[in-house]
## 1
Amino acid sequence: MIHLKDVDKFIESKYQRTFILKSIDLKIEQGEFVSIMGPSGSGKSTLMNIIGMLDKPSQGEYYFMDEPVHLFSERKTSKIHKEHIGFIFQAYHLIDELNVYENIETPLLYRGVKRKERASMVAEMLDRFNMVAKRDLFPEQLSGGQQQLVGVARAIVGKPKLLLADEPTGNLHSSQGEEVMELLQQLNKDGMTIIQVTHNEKFAEYGTRLIELEDGAMKK
């Protein structure tokens, strides 16, 4: 499903290149649940952003479902992104002007899902995350943990083929974190491919494979 071939990401200045990622060779099959770990600054979020098509590699090739992402136009990238990828961000990235219901509904609007179907899909998420009573609240009226749960609901509402989770439990207390990890595990059993970045060794074990990064490179 995902194949990165010799991918580098660097910042170029007049006199030197500073590598954020170097020589990343990575294959992830459909249906895997991969955990990525490594110290701060090891390139984990950059790798996620490249896989999620929010950033481009400086060098190397990226194939998604056998298609060459590194050759895509912006329009094609955007289309694949909307149709196949869900993203749980560490910093929530909720839209302040939209209430809980509207935030969860946003990816379905982008995909052109009909109104009745949207309503049913959002209702299922509100129920699953015990947020029915909070559907009309805005992000600033929610705790950090509640905002994170809305972010998780928004990422999975459209049942994406690939779910990218950057510290999905970082803002949750431990029992909420375990609930989210069990939900991700169930989604994976149902066929969703999941890649998560985590600092939590216990939560990393929910994955079926562990990748460790250090100084922008994969540890052998």
## 2
Amino acid sequence: MLNRKSFIRQAALSAGALIAGPALAEAADYLNPYKLTILHTNDTHSRLDPFPMDGGRNQGLGGVAARSALIQKIRAEEEQVLLLDAGDIFQGTPYFNIYKGEPEIKAMSSMNYDACTIGNHDFDAGMENLAMQITRHANFPMLVANYDFTGTPMEYKTKPYKVFKKGKLKIGVLGVSIEGRGLIPDALFGATKYLDPVQKANETASVLKKEEGCDMIICLSHLGYQYKDNKVSDEVLAKESENIDLIIGGHTHTFLDNPVEYTNKKGDSVIVNQVGFAGIILGRLDFEFSKFSGKKLSKNHNISVSQKTGD
């Protein structure tokens, strides 16, 4: 049985703990960062199998089996992971010629991709086919904010953005793609209306920031990394953007050894990354979020995909 002095001391300690509890929790949030791992691919072009062992420079690289094993390993090690693709899922091997994209979409679904954007070659078997493959086989959304598919088979098959909850973080992901006219045959692009990707990206990012309250905004882009003329690219988008933190690119098959950092219209940093083609590289970007130091890229690693790394 407690004596009077012990009772008072214990009561005081308990009261102090109740008062300090929220403050300690807030201090922990302030000092200890939340972590997010972003894995990404682009321009996989129906490369379901590794490149053949024929003496070529890419022999033995790629393949969905090795990629899937890597993804599973990283997910087992990290608590919060996003898996994203920047378009041109289709075209490039007999798999597409025969099956029109079904095995590619099924493979991505089995790997639990969180989202993708659309590439010009994803139209190669027609919009009706793309709409069918997404409807029947995709368990992830195709995001594109600057294509108006009204009155086409792709109407209602895409979204401009999606918000993902990763622990205490809200991550907004949007998509933009390249001008189809002159690149995609009219018979395949149909009545699709191409809208200004910079304008639509900024409009969508504003919604994600101001209305959805996202902690980070990612743009999946199939615009291409950079061009010698004034064609809209990831470089142009980064410089003209507002509220976008990261651009994951595709289309130009650019192998960036490290992400490139640009300054946007607000004077904030925008990171751009792209990992070549054919799924021979799995991009990995690790971010940390804290009230003390804000949001920062803590580590990046372009992982070579092969049977050896997939073991």
## 3
Amino acid sequence: MELKKSPFYSNTGDIPFGSNISMHVRKKIFAHLMEVYSPTKRTKILDVGVTCEDSHMESNFFEKLYPFKGQITCVGTEDGSHLVKKYEGLKFQIIKAGEMLPFKDREFDIVFSNAVVEHTGDVDGQRFFISELCRVADKVFVSTPYRWFPMETHTCLPLLHFLPKNIFRGILRGSRYGFWAYEQNLNLLSMRDLLGIFPHEMDVKSKNIRLAGFISNIIAYTL
């Protein structure tokens, strides 16, 4: 089956060894999840944000690394049905951006989502996304690229994203990076931003992932 190209991977090939670097970071994220939760073969886990893209090493890395494939349910706005054929017992369902997840309250033990929340629009959209993760699982684990990492990981452009967001988006608009100029496609978060979109009554822990000495990704999770 020939897979479609995902716009979310449209510029990641611009950095030599980019996939190797990305996979290195994502393995650190995965290792922290396994350390925090110690899931077993009975743990029901939901992965929110799988992609149709499977040509990059880091694509759908959770499904590659997680040992209990039959306990994974995954969802995404792109077609991830190829994962059902690739991993025995895995379940996939397509969803629409900005809508409720098609699951009951607390249906899962853990919900995992990597590099998705920055694509869910403005603060209200991000809060809704997080609230849905909190609704469907007992424990929530969310990671996202760090707002202040020197290279913006979607465009592979250095330092431009340090500018005020409206100026950064104005520069991108009309360029080959125009997809990322719109808030619904890219709205980067600091740790304060990420923790601030969780329900205030929740006890949320945080973790920084570093690359070459810089914080590259941030994690927020509940116990």
## 4
Amino acid sequence: MKIPIIIDCDPGVDDALAIILALRHPKVDLKAVCTVTGNGDLENTTKNGLKILSLCGREDIPLYKGSGKGLDDKQPDTVPAFGDDGLGGYAHVVQTDKQIEQENAVDFLLRAADESNGEITLFATGPCTNIARAIRKDKEFPKKFKKLIVMGGAKYTGNMSPVAEYNFWADPLAAKEVMNAGFHEIVMIGLDVTNKIALGADIREILRMFDTDLSRFIYNITRVGLEENWETRRKPVAPMHDVLTVAYLIDESILTLKKANIDVVAEGIGRGQSIVDIGGHWSDGNCNALYAAEVDVEKFYKLFLTTIFKENEQEILEYLR
């Protein structure tokens, strides 16, 4: 039986990869995509979402445009790491006539929650603004989903400050409210594990040699991220943070999770920092989430590559061995 999901995101290269993996795997039923400002302003991320659905031949899946500003009513700074268009300068290669739905993303999420019968898994792979706005309108909203899988935060590192990951940093109040809203289950998949599955130059070159429309697209859109990582860290890898959330849904054994009490710093020098209290040690044993502590990188790559490039499965498995 397929797992029904909704992805709330800010497309972006890594969101695009998450959507592609969800659409390619037979276990996943992507019901809708919602957009938010993050890897570009709202108009840009929304256009990118439409393009990715068209690229995958799934224009039947509805896309709902969401929040352009954070809960503080200010537009957060957007991410430059994926190029000016959010897709490494290659958004223009995908043309689409697909249109957004007339319903706002927040209103859609509220309706979907009421209609889901508790079966839908909700993803947040961008700033948590849409979800926080839905919670503010309906305090019972979190109880109407099976679980929430979040790409955000970290215990040990940051990419916008020494302590803050971008999605939580962009709208820290939204992240704080979402993490403490009372979802049945929250899985926080942050930089501590997503940095480890960054796309290496060797795998990226293999995608180029596969020479399909999709492999060339992924090869091209990941160039800017790879070059930036080389220039700043001398590591030839391209970030793929968000795709790990969908990989975990498909195969939970990819991640090692630990119960934790997780809160988010909403302002000040630590803005956006996720405070991860493993086991609720400092919280009287109370835990509100599962923290992704470790990742099986080889298992992830096997799943990711053989799902998206099924026709090249034998070559992939031989190389990974």
